[in-house]
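Example 9 (inverse folding). The structure is encoded as follows.
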């Protein structure tokens, strides 16, 4: 099968030449296009014009689309440009096609340079407001926080007023969180000053990628241009491995800080690198002198640290507990292959009471449909694969004697088409899984050709709005075969197939890199003839919808391909799960009507939807304080309920994994030798939390990591309910053997 990729997320990583040091630019640096970029744009237009699923000519009409999207890419919230800024470039609105064909990108770069100018002006104004402004919070002013669909400001004064309200809102958030005026001024001034540093580090490569993506996405939402580094990062994400030292890094106050140390990695095994350490200099190999990286872009530091397996990298580090003038330590590490296990498939087991009996449900969480294409191509028998990992987990779950299996695909944005087909094959005997229609209307059927099932018992799939592409292929096939119960909310609605096309084949020198195109080459269809395009997969049993279809999902794109259908494939259903769905839905409705945590979450979702629809927040302190007090009261009530351990007596119980028991016991034992208290769930996933007014790195790293830990430990109400539904299915099938033989004919035959 061809190397075909399905993705939901637009790859927005900015790229520069790998390993290049990028000095911080001054605010007035003028960026200009490079010759290689103009040639790359021309070749990209030729490829997209001929090979795209829905090729669109690069003409005046396309130029207008590129023009609008480019300005939107730069200033999506319409907080920097004025209408006059847009109007001064109106003459080139229909000439961007000529710019690409004529290899002259001076206009897109001029527009970006104007954006940089406006950016610096607006931030300077905001900082002046913070230092010298006086805000009153008794009037009935309001602030529109989502301006994507708003008009451009008619004048400079109008845009300045938008910024006044923005600063006022951020001031009020901090004030409500208990900050004094002096601390608020310091926090906000540092925040706005912090916006300038990343902006000054943007390069002509970044500008080129932004412009080319404006062109690519004007054709169709899932078509993108990837610069050299973005292409490299995409490949790493697909194979879930890289060659490095095993540190997750973060930028904080111009420092590169260690956010996480991967267990078993060179960094972890050395014992010389800790969370919070600051990397101030890097030597990419033993022969190269140390290069100071203070103030560097994070991706440039990462590129310097990464390198070939078995090579040595040297780091100069300031310990986490030392100040800026603290002692510098030097650490040399040998790079190794690092596996990104956090993104791999994982299993858990839950027990649900059913009278005197207990039903065991195995949950397999799959964050992405990953595959190491290169290792598979080379014949590596141990290549990384989502299907192989899930198959191994199913074997373990059989040994654990689970009664039902749930595949959790929430927020799984897709990945390898091959993996989607092969994963489906673990749950059906054999047959078609998905159909593809190319631009010339040829239809190919992708099938599972391996007889037998890795799991022939009952199963379900949990999806949400973030489940896209390959996730939708899998969920749709399971639904069409009648093989399992689909639970959750309607999925993303991405029914298109993308491929990667390297532009370097057109380069006249090995030193020049043109990047890659990711573009749509086909549309996929369910085996029933329909498509998930726009509509997504509709669950059999619906849970509260947390996403916003107007701003997230295929239907939110104005140029998305339409829904359509073709002739169904020939296939034999693997069961009649729809027979049991009404009974499960009835039990589900009765249960959630009594589940206080489920009701609380539904209330929160309704409140968020109301706020999103209003798209406005009061700048009156009395009104905002009342809203905050109400939210804190709700949060305290829920926290008390969770900590009391009285609610949720029928909640699924997590069965401890013996393999993790020792590690957890060790990590739970502090230095004083006394065991740490067992953590108690004090939150619900998806629930609203109190606003501390801070952003990102304004919180301490320790506080940030602690919050993430608490979020992971939070009660997952929707997962618990999905587990309950599958436990109900087990009970129904065990008490009605005739129904069981229809719902699971293959399992019945096997017995």
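The amino acid assigned to each position is listed next.
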């Amino acid at each position: 099968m061809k190397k075909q990729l399905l993705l939901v997320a637009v790859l927005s990583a900015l790229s520069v030449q790998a390993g290049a040091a990028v000095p911080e630019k001054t605010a007035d640096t003028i960026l200009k296009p490079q010759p290689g970029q103009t040639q790359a744009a021309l070749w990209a237009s030729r490829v997209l014009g001929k090979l795209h699923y829905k090729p669109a000519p690069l003409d005046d009409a396309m130029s207008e689309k590129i023009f609008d999207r480019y300005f939107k890419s730069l200033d999506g919230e319409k907080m920097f440009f004025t209408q006059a800024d847009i109007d001064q470039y109106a003459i080139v609105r229909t000439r961007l096609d000529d710019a690409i064909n004529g290899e002259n990108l001076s206009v897109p770069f001029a527009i970006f340079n104007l954006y940089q100018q406006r950016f610096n002006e607006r931030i300077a104004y905001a900082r002046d407001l913070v230092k010298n402004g006086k805000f009153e919070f008794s009037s009935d002013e309001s602030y529109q926080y989502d301006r994507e669909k708003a008009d451009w400001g008619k004048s400079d004064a109008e845009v300045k007023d938008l910024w006044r309200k923005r600063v006022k809102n951020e001031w009020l958030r901090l004030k409500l969180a208990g900050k004094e005026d002096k601390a608020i001024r310091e926090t906000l001034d540092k925040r706005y000053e912090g916006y300038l540093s990343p902006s000054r580090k943007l390069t002509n490569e970044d500008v080129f990628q932004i412009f080319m993506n404006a062109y690519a996405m004007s054709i169709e939402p899932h078509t993108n241009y990837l610069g050299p580094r973005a292409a490299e990062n995409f490949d790493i994400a697909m194979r879930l491995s890289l060659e490095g030292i095993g540190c997750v890094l973060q930028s904080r106050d111009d420092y590169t800080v260690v956010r996480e140390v991967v267990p078993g990695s060179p960094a972890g095994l050395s014992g010389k690198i800790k969370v919070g350490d600051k990397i101030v200099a890097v030597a990419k190999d033993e022969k190269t002198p140390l290069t100071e990286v203070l103030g560097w872009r994070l991706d440039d530091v990462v590129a310097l640290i990464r390198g070939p397996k078995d090579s040595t990298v040297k780091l100069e580090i300031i310990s986490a507990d030392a100040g800026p003038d603290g002692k510098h330590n030097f650490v040399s590490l040998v790079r190794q292959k690092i596996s990104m296990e956090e993104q791999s498939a994982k299993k858990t087991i839950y027990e649900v009471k059913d009278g005197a009996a207990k039903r065991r449900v195995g949950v397999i969480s799959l964050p992405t449909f990953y595959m190491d294409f290169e290792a598979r191509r080379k014949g590596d028998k141990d290549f990384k694969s989502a299907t192989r990992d899930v198959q191994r987990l199913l074997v373990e779950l059989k040994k654990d004697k689970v009664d039902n299996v749930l595949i959790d695909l929430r927020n799984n944005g897709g990945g390898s088409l091959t993996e989607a087909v092969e994963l489906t094959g673990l749950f059906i005997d054999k047959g078609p899984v998905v159909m593809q229609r190319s631009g010339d209307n040829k239809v190919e059927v992708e099938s599972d050709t391996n007889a037998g099932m890795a799991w022939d018992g009952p199963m379900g799939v949990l999806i949400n709005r973030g489940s896209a592409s390959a996730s939708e292929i899998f969920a749709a096939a399971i639904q069409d075969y009648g093989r399992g119960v689909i639970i959750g909310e309607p999925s993303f609605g991405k029914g298109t197939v993308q491929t990667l096309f390297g532009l370097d084949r057109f380069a006249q020198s090995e030193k020049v890199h043109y990047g890659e195109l990711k573009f749509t080459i086909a549309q996929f269809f369910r085996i029933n003839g329909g498509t998930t395009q726009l509509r997504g997969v509709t669950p059999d049993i619906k849970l509260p919808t947390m996403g916003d279809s107007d701003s997230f999902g295929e239907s939110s794109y104005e140029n998305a391909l339409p829904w359509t259908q073709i002739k169904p494939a020939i296939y034999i259903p693997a069961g009649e799960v729809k027979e049991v769905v009404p009974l499960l839905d009835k039990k589900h409705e009765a249960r959630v009507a009594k589940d206080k945590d489920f009701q609380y979450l539904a209330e929160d979702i309704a409140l968020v939807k109301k706020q999103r629809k209003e798209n406005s927040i009061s700048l009156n302190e009395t009104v905002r304080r009342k809203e905050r007090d109400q939210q804190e009261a709700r949060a305290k009530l829920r926290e008390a309920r969770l900590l009391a351990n009285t609610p949720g007596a029928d909640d699924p119980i997590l069965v401890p994994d013996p393999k993790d028991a020792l590690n957890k016991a060790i990590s739970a034992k502090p230095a004083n030798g006394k065991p740490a208290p067992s953590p108690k769930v004090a939150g619900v996933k998806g629930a609203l939390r109190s606003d501390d007014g801070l952003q990102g790195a304004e919180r301490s790293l320790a506080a940030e990591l602690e919050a993430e830990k608490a979020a992971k430990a939070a009660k997952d109400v929707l997962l618990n309910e999905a587990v309950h539904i599958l436990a109900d299915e087990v009970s129904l099938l065990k008490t009605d053997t005739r129904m069981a033989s229809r719902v699971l004919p293959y399992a019945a035959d096997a017995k």
